[in-house]
Amino acid sequence: MTEEESEKNYRSGLPGFLGVIDTAISKIESVILAMGVLLMALNTVTNVVARFVFGNSIMFSGELNRILIIMITFAGIGYAARHGRHIRMSAIYDALPVGGRKVLMIGIAFFTSLVMFFLLYYSVVYILDLYSKGRVLPSLGLPVWIIYIWVPMGFLITGIQYMLTAIKNLTTRDVYLSTGVVDGYKDTETEV
């Protein structure tokens, strides 16, 4: 099964209501990421064609790509957390026995979740500050605070995802990097 198929058929390993939340967030993230990447590619290609064929760029193209980059980045952090794709520095972690790794993973997941919720709070404070200033994007005319709405949404989704990972580790025997990824390394070497 390809990664694309596994994401399309994603089902959370969490029990009951937590699994429903996890699966719903996964589907929303997938749509946001796919839409964002496709829109950015379409916008960029259209702008290049307009520049070289008609001699003028689309005036709002840069602003639109800025919005899409923010959207993709902050939807992507939740996606990376769900699939256990964040960078790990695991020398100490790997040296521990399974029980120690499980305790450390629960601590890491809870702590990371708290950090995400802390950043969520400060991103909302930042957006409220932008809102009070009333600035607008020059080409699109949108208030600047609107383009940063994705930041707290991304921190919220990622915080929830790490909290669910901690819960998954508390309720199962194996050590999980995310709700659906069991700890371990895949052999990526290929024979020549």
From TrEMBL:
InterPro entries: DctQ, TRAP_DctQ
Subcellular location: Cell inner membrane
Main location: membrane
Entry keyword set: Cell inner membrane, Cell membrane, Membrane, Transmembrane, Transmembrane helix, Transport
Domain of life: Bacteria
Membrane-traversing stretches: 31-54, 66-82, 103-124, 144-164
Tripartite ATP-independent periplasmic transporters DctQ component domain sequence ranges: 40-170
Bilayer topology annotation: Multi-pass membrane protein
Quaternary structure and interacting proteins, as annotated: The complex comprises the extracytoplasmic solute receptor protein and the two transmembrane proteins.
UniProt family annotation: Belongs to the TRAP transporter small permease family.
Function statement: Part of the tripartite ATP-independent periplasmic (TRAP) transport system.
Name this polypeptide is given: TRAP transporter small permease protein
Upper taxonomic lineage: Bacteria, Pseudomonadati, Pseudomonadota, Gammaproteobacteria, Oceanospirillales
